[in-house]
Amino acid sequence: FPLKSDSLRGLEQLSNPLRRPHRAMNPERFQRLSGALRRRQPDLTVLMEQVHKSHNLSAILRNCDAAGVFEAHVVPPDEGLQIHSHTSAGTAKWVRLVRHRTVQAAVQELKDRGFRVLAAHPGPGAVDFRSVDFTGPTALMMGAELQGLSAEALALADLRISIPMVGMAQSFNVSVATALLLFEAFRQREAADMYDESRIDPEASKRILFEWAYPR
């Protein structure tokens, strides 16, 4: 049977997703995206070494988003990575995740970009994280929950930092520890007005906002 023109248009849209009609973005949501991007900190990041529990990785990405981290770095465990959308609350979409084959390669790239690498690791030589200046380019290096950071990672770090504890447990959950460190960085940077103006290149900012707002 002959098809009407409306039916033809409908079939064409189904066969070509790029031509499907899109719902207009809510202006309030667009402003929220713009505001979040404007506050992103390109010189504050987290490097995760062999964080093998997917819920911890997802929770750390959620912490990164909340503190305005632009991108995070990871040296994946042998079994690979899996991000839980429920734990991350969808924030994996807003925080770029960069994968590295080895911790040495990851640290070298960050140092080449001017980052100071801080190893979160209790023990001799570690300083109280509250005494550290987080307003300069800073990479927080976090290890797996039981093993912590490897000896290689600790040797590559510029400084070891720790979170004081007075109970029987020796350390926080890795995602909780990351949140505490990030929000000390947030406190210092907010006091220094580092969230007031966009710190990302304008052209890059336009491209990222387009990707955030129009993911297709």
Summarize this structure briefly.
The protein is an alpha/beta fold and 216 residues long.
**What topology, given as strand order, has the largest sheet?**
3-2-1-6-4-7-5
Taken from the alpha-carbon principal axes, the silhouette is globular
Q: What is the terminal-to-terminal distance?
A: 35 Å
- The mean pLDDT is 85
Number of strands: 7
Structural class: alpha/beta
Along the chain, the helix and strand elements come as HHEHEHEHEEEHEHH
What percentage of amino acids are in beta strands?
5-15%
Tell me the helix content: 40-55%
The stretches of 5 or more residues where confidence is low (pLDDT under 50) are 1-15
Number of helices: 8
Radius of gyration: 21 Å
Main sheet properties: 7 strands, parallel
Describe the structure.
The structure is a single chain. α2 runs antiparallel to α8 (202-213) and α3 (54-67) runs parallel beside α7 (174-191). Residues 1-15 have low confidence and may be disordered. This protein is 40% helix and 15% strand. It has 216 residues and is an alpha/beta fold. It is built from 8 helices and 7 strands; from the N terminus they run ααβαβαβαβββαβαα. The protein has a 7-stranded parallel beta sheet.
Keywords:
8 helices, about 220 residues, 7-stranded parallel β-sheet, alpha/beta, about 15% strand, disordered N terminus
